[in-house]
Amino acid sequence: MSTIPSHYREEILKPLFDLLKSGESCYLIGAPSAGKTRLVDFIMGDNPDALRTGEDYDRDWVKKKYLGEDIASKIWLVRMDMNNMRYEVDWSFQFYELMLYSILLTCNRNSSMEGISDLKTELAELDAQIIQSKDALTAHRLFGMAVNKICQIYNIQLCFLFDEFDVTYQTMPKEVFAQLRAIRDANKYRLLFVLFLRTLPEKLRDPRENESFFELISRNMLGLGPYSKRDTLHIISQLEKRRDYNSPKEHREWIYTVSGGHPGLIQALFNILKEQPQSISQMKDMEWFAKQETVREEFRKILEGLSTEEVSALRSFANGDIQSIPPSTGRQIKAKGLIKPLNDHIMLFSPMFAYWLR
Questions:
Q1: What does pTM read for this prediction?
Q2: Phi-psi region for residue 90, left (φ > 0), alpha (ψ -120 to 50) or beta?
Q3: 3-class secondary structure, 131
Q4: Rounded to whole angstroms, how far apart are CA atoms 40 and 62?
Q5: Rounded to an integer, what distance in angstroms lies between the CA atom of residue 287 and that of residue 220?
Q6: Which pLDDT score is estimated for 3?
Q7: What's the helix, strand, coil split of the chain in %, to 5?
Q8: 322: helix, coil or strand?
Q9: Of 224, 251, 285, which closes a domain?
Q10: Tell me: the pLDDT tens digits for 100-155?
């Protein structure tokens, strides 16, 4: 079936689905290139390899693994692709139309549900009314009507997954946040929001601007850090198959230890060992690898996607100046997995990255 193993990202998916099961909204925070979009693909059961070959498979198998078949059938995961927003048109109108359209797409994934054809027809008619009206109030009202019917008549729990939501979270009118909270309260524990972010929500905007919505997510933060050892070894095995190259076991272990499980570093180090045979004799020389162009490029990408405060905190951490790091910034880099506990100490995720920072 899937080329991604069932244990993929278990450390984040188990608490995520536990929250969904209890009807709680939340947010996930991860560093650049941490694999947020790939995680959403996995949650949704969108397997690129199977889709490309036309393989028939159960796209709800991840839900079923964590929720059980009965509960999984009653929870709809609705993916919101913010790239479909046209910001030059009225913001609220566009947003609610996109939410309703995304539910309509989700209906196509649940074609076996009894009465789904009637529901799809009704949702399509509501979406057409919204588009024709081009009116924010109409869009808001009809979206609320659709959610009420799905949650209360069909007894479905709707969970919206907002990928790459930082810019939207910063710019969305505060009135829309309040309206979303009101629709959620009318469908308590049946309407959920999961935000995928690069930055803590309180750093994106003042929580007082969207206090009621912020309360929904603020208690439930999940950090998306580098890959676990098991996932890292699987990624390496995938690279070996694609590149027709078998790494010795000690090389795979070394890649995990030195990369800290960072996806970009895993690939960069694998390629160096494969393409540059002389590199094998340099495996104990951190400086040699840290100077390689592809490794330095990954370090640059990491820093480029972080705030000035985060970069400063990482440099302070690498040089042993922990006391100067503001608590909120320390919380953020820890949530992103850029620092992690190891043998009763807190370390940077990658010893090579630590060396380079110093």
A1: 0.89
A2: beta
A3: helix
A4: 11
A5: 40
A6: 66
A7: 60, 10, 30
A8: helix
A9: 224
A10: 999 999 988 776 666 788 899 999 999 999 999 989 999 999 999 999 999 999 99
For 255, the domain range is 229-357
Residue 157, amino acid:
Q
Count of domains for the chain: 2
Q: What is the CA radius of gyration of the chain?
A: 22
User: CA 222, CA 237: separation in Å to the nearest integer?
Assistant: 27
CA 130 to CA 144: how far, in whole Å?
12
Low-confidence stretches of the chain (pLDDT beneath 70): 1-3, 47-56, 87-89, 111-114
| Helix and strand counts by DSSP (H, E) for the chain | 20, 7
34 falls within a domain: yes
Q: Which of 171, 201, 224 is the last residue of a domain?
A: 224
The beta-strand segments (E) located in the chain are 26-30, 75-80, 157-162, 191-197, 221-224, 339-342, 345-348
Longest Cα–Cα distance of the chain, Å, equals 68
pLDDT of residue 87: 67
- Token pair for 116: 């789904």
- For residue 200, what are its two tokens? 């803590």
8 A C-beta contact, residue 221 and residue 26: yes
Give which of 273, 261, 271 is closest to 352, Cα–Cα: 261
